[in-house]
Design a protein that fits this description.
Its EC number is 3.1.3.11. Its cofactor is Mg(2+). One of its GO terms (cellular component) is cytosol. It is found in: Cytoplasm. With about 325 residues, this protein is of the alpha+beta class. The chain has seven helices and 17 strands. α2 (about 20-45) runs antiparallel to α3 (about 65-80) and α4 crosses α7. The structure holds 6-O-phosphono-beta-D-fructofuranose (F6P). The site of 6-O-phosphono-beta-D-fructofuranose has 8 residues, from loops. 6-O-phosphono-beta-D-fructofuranose binds near residues 115, 248, 275 and 276.
């Protein structure tokens, strides 16, 4: 049986959709880094990679050893190839400068090196989320790359994807013409195309939200979740099931597999507009979900239309099956 590896898929994309060679190289390098992260994650206690670093990231969150290891793997893999003008990571305060000894390229790489890292120590799925943007023309500016270069709406992404480290390691990818899923064949060491043209069903009976925050939600979310819980006897006239894995990668992967709705709404605790990061989580996932026929909003507007104002900006997120995302978004607008 002829198998389509990631390399073959990307070469065929170059032929059919004029994917530039440097973008192809970039994606291959990111995929290689994800293989290395997958290997580290799978070692667990045997590799001494579990537990915390004893440090905090820019968001004030405790960094796990694997957060830091994954960040370094991605930086090292991507800094030398000449395809990037800079990188930004959820784990770093500022934009990462490509060292002066290497050539610079046309793209910016943005990533959450290990999403859902509270799952690491309990042996539950985690993942890497990434997004690729074009670097704006800097008009001969040879100085450091500032954060403004990255502040582009998600609709400008040229590619987005994630790797999920679960029972299987998979890579999901969009370059704006559908979503493809590749499974890591550990014997060959290659990602192999296993899920062609992934689609999110329009209707669903499954939702994901951290219910422990209920008392902090805004009214439209309280109303909507109340209706979901009311089931067949309520206004929606059907029963809903709930799942919450606490790793966005894993919750989104389930939605891409069988549909569903993922919500991390704004809450009124500390005036933060939600928990998830626009650049590292919401934008790449929104691009993937839309390319699979789903919808992604912040309750008021399409996530991909938000103009970012800072690298580590947070946003409320509602994404997944069209019918339910549109319903909860409409409740915000009433
Ligand atoms: O970055 C954030 C993250 O770990 C997401 O992957 C996940 O969806 C969410 O936080 C879980 O949040 P909580 O711990 O509040 O359930």
């Amino acid at each position: 049986m002829s198998r389509v590896t990631l390399s073959r898929y990307l070469i065929e994309q170059t032929r059919s959709h004029n994917t530039p060679a440097d973008l192809r190289f970039l994606i291959e390098v990111v995929a290689r880094a994800c293989k290395a992260i997958s290997h580290q994650v799978s070692k667990g206690a045997l590799g001494g990679v579990l537990g915390s670093m004893g440090t905090e990231n820019v968001q004030g969150e405790v960094q796990k050893k694997l957060d830091v290891i994954s960040n370094e793997i991605l930086l090292e893999a991507n800094e030398w190839g000449g395809h990037l003008a800079g990188m930004a990571s959820e784990e770093m305060d500022n934009a990462y400068q490509i060292p002066g000894r290497y050539p610079k390229g046309a793209y910016l790489l943005v990533f959450d090196p290990l999403d859902g890292s509270s799952n690491i120590d309990v042996n539950v799925s985690v993942g890497t989320i990434f997004s690729v943007l074009r670097c704006p023309d800097r008009k001969g500016d040879k100085g450091d790359l500032g954060e403004e270069a990255f502040l582009q709406p998600g609709s400008q992404q040229v590619c987005a994807g994630y790797a999920i480290y679960g029972p299987q390691t998979m890579l999901l990818l969009t370059m704006g013409n559908g979503v493809k899923g590749f499974t890591l064949d550990r014997e060959l060491g290659s990602f192999v195309l296993t899920h062609d043209d992934i689609k999110v069903p329009e209707a669903t009976q499954e939702f994901a939200i951290n219910m422990s925050n209920q008392r902090h939600w805004e009214e439209p979310v309280k109303r909507y979740v109340g209706e979901l819980l009311a089931g067949a006897e309520g206004p929606l006239k059907k029963n809903f099931n709930m799942r919450w894995i606490a790793a966005m990668v894993a919750d989104v992967h389930r939605i891409l597999t069988r549909g569903g709705l993922f919500m991390y709404p704004r809450d009124n605790r500390d005036d933060k507009p939600g928990k998830l990061r626009l650049m590292y989580e919401a934008n790449p996932m929104a691009f993937i979900i839309e390319q699979a026929g789903g919808v992604a909003t912040d309750g008021n507007q399409r996530i991909l239309d938000i103009q970012p104002t800072s690298l580590h900006q947070r946003v409320p997120v509602f994404l997944g099956s069209k019918e339910e995302v549109e319903r909860v978004t409409a409740y915000h607008q009433e």
